[in-house]
Specification:
Elements: H1 27-56, H2 61-82, H3 85-107, H4 117-121
Helix pairs in contact: 1-2
């Protein structure tokens, strides 16, 4: 008795493509981003309220600034998500060089010097 080989039906599995079609977002990742953003804003609000009120008279000063930066960052993220990936791949090395130059600027005389930081940073054991 001979055994015939049975053909296994195709499961339809194909490797994923490198880039998703334009207009489709990973909503789970966006929800995670928003959750971490809200937790971070809450931490800024709870940690800096007393200091902000003592320095500026407004206990929401640092929270408002952080919220403005978060909104600007969210808009930039949304715009860059719409840019085709091959364009971002072409710009990755110029962006990396630009960021490294900005890091070196902080070590140069153009960088800001923080006065009075020892008072806030010093920890006594």
């Amino acid at each position: 008795m001979t055994m015939a080989r049975r053909r296994v039906p195709s499961s339809g599995f194909r490797p994923t493509q490198e880039s998703a079609p334009v207009g489709q977002y990973d909503w789970g990742l966006i929800a995670l981003f928003l959750m971490l953003l809200c937790i971070g804003l809450l931490m800024v609000l709870s940690a800096s309220g007393v200091v902000a009120e003592r320095i500026n008279g407004d206990k929401y000063f640092f929270f408002k600034r952080q919220l403005i930066y978060a909104v600007i960052g969210g808009v930039v993220m949304w715009v860059l998500a719409a840019v085709p990936r091959h364009i971002l791949y072409k710009l990755q090395y110029p962006f990396l060089l630009f960021v490294l130059m900005l890091l070196f600027v902080t070590l140069s005389p153009l960088g800001a010097r923080v006065n009075g930081a020892q008072r806030w940073i010093s920890v006594k054991f």
